[in-house]
Each structure stands twice: as structure tokens, then as C-alpha cells.
């Protein structure tokens, strides 16, 4: 496995440890977003010097995994994948299929990662875990997790809605010498500089990459993200309830507000009753997703949607984010001692 180098000062050199282990030149990971982070995005991020992550959803097929993982590896650069622990609890086959393609890093989140983490380590890859509160952070500090991803509630898609990125990042950095990656609400060079200056090993960015040309997202979804404001999202379980998706109740999703969420997000009990009574709502939202009717279908995006634009390539996004170094240098000059 790409072991993390030993260090006499691990807390101050954790960035170098993770970079040495995974081989990226820009400390930018694309989030492993199911439905957006396919092989093309993964490969493009890695080719541009970042670390590309493939998103494996709950319903992905073996053929899809083999095809997309093959594309992800095509850059010749290290890459990784993200899977959901609550799905792997029922079936480890998707993880086994991903591991057959040789990722260097696998993130196992949203549930107990134990059996899956052991399988990843057997393959020789590093294991990461997304955490959204203090209890999950405590679990990630156990020996079977190599990298902690602090996902604040600003982030898009599924996760907890309890703690924002900076408090969670600061807590993690005070508790561990493991590499810590910051996630949630990051979309600009200034945002990356903020978490890197605090001590993060890298920035984990989803929403901005979801709108890139290589993303699997529908063109309408990319345009919706690019046109949204920072206060246009809602955190809710409404979309999962309507689609009858078995996400654990503690993990809602942050998405762009639309007519459906405006109608149902504040009355989940009534929504559950309606879904149980017949198939009308479930059929309507599934049809809306198929035809990209964004007044009904979910567009999972974080608060950083208001800082994102559609139409850029992954390489262009990484080049922009790499400006975090100049931001840090400016801050050092401004606040450095005389």
C-alpha cells in the first residue's frame, strides 16, 4: 500500500506525508460524487496534478464500475474511489470490483467502515473516512483509517448537518497527527488557502467539479449549479423519501431548492404518508430525473454553488484553485512580523 511516510514531526509534515503517498502535485481532491464523478472527471483531475476520485453509487453495475474505473486509471496517475459503508454492509462486491483496478486511495463513509477498510488495506491502498461530527471523528481516529476527511454541513450531497467545516477541521487537527482533508463550502483559491493555512493536507471539492465539462452531470444540472447563489440550497431528506432510497436517516442531502423541496422539505411526515399510500410521487420524481426536470428532480450541490460556474474543464478549475499559494503569500506579507 502507499504507506504514509514516518516523520519526527508528523503534525507539521502531514501535508508532505499524504502528498508523498498519493503523488499529487496540487492538494485538490474532487469529491467522489455518485452521478457526477465518473472516470473522465477522475482522470482529468489526476492528469491536472490533483487527486481524482471516482464516485460509486448504490446502484452501480459491474459493467459501469469496470468501464469507469478503467477510464479513471487511463491518465496513468494515481486515483481513488469513494463508496458508502451502508451499501457495502450488504454487499462488498462493488468494492472488490473497484479494487481490481488498482486505486491508491479509497474513501469509505456513511456508516461503519470496518470490514470494507480491512479489504482496502489488503489491496495495498490507503483508507479514508468522511466525518461530519465529533463521534464520527473519534471513529476515524482508530487505526484502520489512514486519512480523515472533515465534511462540514456546507457541502453538497449527502452527509450530516451538524457542524460546519472550519470548527470540524480545527477539532480534527487538534486530535490527530493523521492527514486531514477539508471538505464543504470550498470553491475558490481563497477557500483552499483558508483550510491549507489552518493545517489541512488537501481540499476536497465537489460542487465546482460537478459543473465541469468532464462531469457526468446533465448539462441542465451544470447550468443550474452555475446559476445558483450561496443561499439557494436546502438540507433535506425529502428527495430520498420520495425516491424510496434507503439512506440512513442521519444523512440527509444538501441540494438546490426547487418546487419539490419547497413543497415537502418542511413536512417529511406528510411526504412519507403520501409515498406509502401510492406510487405517484415516486414515479413523478423518477421521471423528472430521467428528463432532467429540475423543478422536481434533485440537484445535489453545496453552498459553494454560488461560487461556481459551468463550462470549465477540470484542469481549468485546478489551475484556478492553485492560486491558493498566492493568497497565502499575500497573507504572510500582510501579517508577517516586521
From TrEMBL:
Pfam family, one: NMO
Keyword annotations from UniProtKB, A to Z: Flavoprotein, FMN, Oxidoreductase
Entry annotated with the keyword Flavoprotein: yes
Taxonomic superkingdom: Bacteria
Identification of the protein by name: Nitronate monooxygenase
Amino acid at each position: 500500500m502507499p504507506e504514509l511516510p514516518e516523520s519526527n514531526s508528523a503534525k507539521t509534515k502531514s501535508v508532505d506525508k499524504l502528498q508523498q503517498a498519493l503523488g499529487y502535485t496540487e492538494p485538490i481532491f474532487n469529491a467522489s460524487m455518485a452521478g457526477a464523478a465518473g472516470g473522465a472527471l477522475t482522470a482529468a483531475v489526476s492528469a491536472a496534478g490533483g487527486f481524482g476520485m471516482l464516485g460509486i453509487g448504490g446502484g452501480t453495475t459491474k459493467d459501469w464500475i469496470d468501464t469507469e474505473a478503467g477510464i479513471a486509471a487511463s491518465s496513468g496517475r494515481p486515483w481513488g474511489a469513494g463508496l458508502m459503508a451502508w451499501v457495502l454492509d450488504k454487499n462488498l462486491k462493488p468494492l472488490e470490483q473497484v479494487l481490481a483496478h488498482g486505486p491508491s486511495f479509497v474513501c469509505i463513509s456513511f456508516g461503519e467502515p470496518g470490514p470494507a477498510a480491512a479489504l482496502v488495506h489488503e489491496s495495498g491502498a490507503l483508507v479514508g473516512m468522511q466525518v461530519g461530527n465529533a463521534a464520527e471523528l473519534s471513529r476515524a481516529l482508530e487505526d484502520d483509517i489512514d486519512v480523515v476527511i472533515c465534511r462540514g454541513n456546507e457541502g453538497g450531497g449527502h452527509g450530516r448537518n451538524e457542524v460546519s467545516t472550519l470548527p470540524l477541521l480545527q477539532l480534527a487537527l487538534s486530535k490527530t497527527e493523521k492527514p486531514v482533508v477539508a471538505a464543504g463550502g470550498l470553491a475558490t483559491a481563497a477557500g483552499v488557502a483558508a483550510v491549507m493555512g489552518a493545517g489541512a493536507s488537501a481540499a476536497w471539492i465537489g460542487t465546482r467539479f460537478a459543473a465541469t465539462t468532464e462531469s457526468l452531470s446533465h448539462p441542465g444540472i451544470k447550468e443550474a449549479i452555475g446559476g445558483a447563489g450561496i443561499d439557494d440550497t436546502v438540507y433535506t431528506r425529502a428527495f430520498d423519501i420520495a425516491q424510496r432510497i434507503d439512506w440512513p436517516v442521519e444523512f440527509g442531502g444538501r441540494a438546490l431548492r426547487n418546487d419539490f423541496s419547497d413543497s415537502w422539505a418542511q413536512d417529511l411526515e406528510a411526504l412519507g404518508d403520501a409515498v406509502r399510500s401510492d406510487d405517484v410521487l415516486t414515479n413523478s420524481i423518477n421521471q423528472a430525473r430521467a428528463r432532467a426536470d429540475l423543478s422536481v428532480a434533485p440537484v445535489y450541490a453545496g453552498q459553494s454553488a454560488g461560487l461556481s460556474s459551468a463550462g470549465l474543464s477540470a484542469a481549468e478549475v485546478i489551475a484556478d484553485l492553485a492560486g491558493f499559494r498566492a493568497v497565502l503569500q499575500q497573507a504572510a506579507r500582510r501579517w508577517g512580523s516586521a
